[in-house]
From TrEMBL:
The keyword DNA-binding applies. Keywords: DNA-binding. This is DNA-binding PadR family transcriptional regulator. Coiled coil: none annotated.
């Protein structure tokens, strides 16, 4: 997930200040990707440097507001129109962990799979509980995505166990 594009998308709705962007980002994603305010301001600085946003007037409480430029609006439109590729996603640490466990490290791979399964099932239960109280459709969809990813991980772990049992 590109914080840069997430902030541009929020700014395309209208000028906002840093803390407001952080709160709206976390609300829209259901807290799935918590941001610290320093990360927000660092990203805002880079967006301003790249001509994608500009500082506007301070609000009534003296907070510096940022607004998207035409170049920034175009970048947000391009981001929404482009698919996210596998290369855009970070490495899957679980896949790397199991591959290294199988690579002759002396680790009990079946135990690694079982520990992961228990953790993933617990996470899935938590996500399902949180979805029941999701405040808006955006949060519910983020939680749905996380639940589906957890389900896929459980299926993959089942596949790993079947594969390991034949060796």
């Amino acid at each position: 997930m590109s914080i840069r594009h997430g902030l541009l998308a929020l700014l395309a709705r209208g000028p906002r200040y840093g803390y407001q962007l952080r709160a709206e980002f976390e609300s829209a994603t259901g807290g799935a990707w918590p941001l610290n305010v320093g990360q927000v301001y660092t990203t805002l600085g880079r967006l301003e440097r790249d001509g994608l946003i500009e500082q506007g007037e301070a609000d009534a409480e003296g907070r510096q507001c940022y607004a998207v430029t035409e170049a920034g609006r175009g970048e947000a439109v391009r981001w929404f129109a482009a698919p996210i590729t596998r290369a855009d996603r970070p490495r899957d640490e679980l896949v790397v962990k199991l591959a290294l466990a199988l690579a002759g490290s002396g680790v009990d791979v079946r135990a690694v799979v079982q520990v992961q399964r228990a953790a993933t099932l617990a996470a899935m239960r938590d996500l399902t509980r949180r979805k029941l109280t999701a405040a808006d459709p955006a949060q519910a969809l983020v939680l749905d995505a996380q639940i589906f990813q957890a389900e896929a991980e459980i299926r993959w772990l089942d596949h790993c166990e079947r594969t390991l049992s034949t060796r």
